[in-house]
Amino acid sequence: MALRDGHVVADVVLMDLLLPGCSGIEATRAIVADAPVGPDAPRVLFISGSAEDDAVVAALRAGARGYMVKGAPGEELVRGVRTVAQGGAVFSAAVADRLGRYFSAVHEMPFRAAFPDLTEREREVLDLVARGLSNRRIARELVLSEKTVRNHVSRVFAKLRVADRVEAAIRARDAGLGG
Fold this sequence. Notes:
Blueprint: E1 2-4, E2 7-9, E3 12-15, E4 18-19, E5 22-23, H1 24-34, E6 43-48, H2 53-62, E7 66-69, H3 74-85, E8 90-91, H4 93-108, H5 111-114, H6 120-130, H7 135-142, H8 146-160, H9 165-174
Parallel strand pairs: 3-6, 6-7, 7-8
Antiparallel strand pairs: 1-2, 4-5
Helix pairs in contact: 6-8, 6-9, 7-8
């Protein structure tokens, strides 16, 4: 803990999923949103009885720097707090194993599941956009008119809520398309 601008600020906040009045995820979002940017920002380490994939991923998306399960050996918890305090990330062995399986499954997930709002044709167009093809090349590849391709691209942008081809390509590549 440190005193900054007249306020006591924690270096590491130990968080659980279940808190009275709100969830640990909501509390983490609030801490991260209100925190100063940089090395003085408090870091959140979840210590929870749940190691379910959804809980771990939600904690990380909220801004947590680590996730450990309750019941981990004391020395492992101390190392975890120190690691997070120094700016690192830490996961207990059980969580790290689950994360590895989770992200392997996401990588192997068919791109249809990654973009459920897209039609099959829109997914094809997105894949070709992610490969860097122009509308003209996409039209030739799919045997469509350029106007039809432009319409598909516009619908893809709207459904993905992206502004341009670069953003669409990044989202597509993150989901395993464009390879």
